[in-house]
Amino acid sequence: MRVVQSWDDGIVDDVRLTELLRRYGATATFNLNPGLHQRQRSFSWRYGDKEVWRLGLDELVEVYAGFEIANHSLTHPYLPDLSPMDLEREVGDSRRWLQDWFQQPVRGFCYPFGGFSPAVKAAIHTAGHIYARTVAELDPVFPPADPLEFGANCRFADPAFWTGYERAKAINGVFFFWGHSYELVNEAMWADLENKIAGISADLAAEWVNLETLFAG
């Protein structure tokens, strides 16, 4: 069974998350908005009682070293509302910036707010992406009917996480979970995530792979 995970938005909690993933040899894809990062860390919004800060430009390459980077648009707008010119900028310019910063191909896309349309999908494809992730929950997840409407099994904190995992394992399929690290609001949630990552890494029937690897063939 192949296991993939995807995390959004490039926020400061990703520092702890990437350290956790490296500790267990887990791969992951991080979906970034290059137009929203300032030189230094910057406050973005509140998630309940928690302040959410974005990483600074100068630390991005170091924080995400060794991980796959995907495009989450330039500034995280709702893409179906954009003009064709703004859509091309949000999708195409963002991909070019990320490839320049990280010196790796960026072939994946993640729809901000999960929003897409035929015009958005066409722009994603034209810009050079081979898949685009939605927020739809599917089972099984792979192969998708449309690579530009690629869903996931569940969120990382889903109570049915292990149920979905075992279902995918039973058919030697793909298990895909996602989230935002700012959702980890206490030590119990971090411990639960570590238990999941450690458990998957210890499972001889499971293999961590990057999202792009699923579509490379």
Structure description:
The protein has 217 residues and is an alpha/beta fold. It has one domain: Glycoside hydrolase/deacetylase (TIM Barrel), CATH 3.20.20. 35% of the residues lie in helices and 23% in strands. The strands form three sheets. Strands 1, 2, 5, 9, 10 and 11 form a six-stranded parallel β-sheet that branches. Helix 3 runs parallel beside helix 4.
Features:
alpha/beta; 35% helix; 3-stranded parallel sheet; TIM Barrel; single chain; 7 helices; 6-stranded parallel sheet; 217 residues
| Main beta sheet strand tally, sense and closure | 6 strands, parallel
What series of H and E elements makes up the topology?
EHEEEHEHEHEEEHEHEH
Rounded to an integer, what's the Rg over CA atoms?
17 Å
| Percent in strands | 15-25%
Give the tally of β-strands.
Answer: 11
Shape: globular
Structure described in brief:
By secondary structure, the protein is α/β, with parallel strands linked by helices.
Please write out the topology:
Elements (H helix, E strand, L loop, with lengths): L1 E7 L4 H11 L5 E4 L9 E6 L2 E5 L2 H7 L4 E4 L12 H19 L5 E3 L7 H9 L4 E7 L12 E3 L1 E2 L5 H10 L3 E6 L7 H16 L4 E2 L2 H5 L2
Parallel strand pairs: 1-2, 1-10, 1-11, 2-5, 6-7, 7-8, 9-10
Antiparallel strand pairs: 3-4
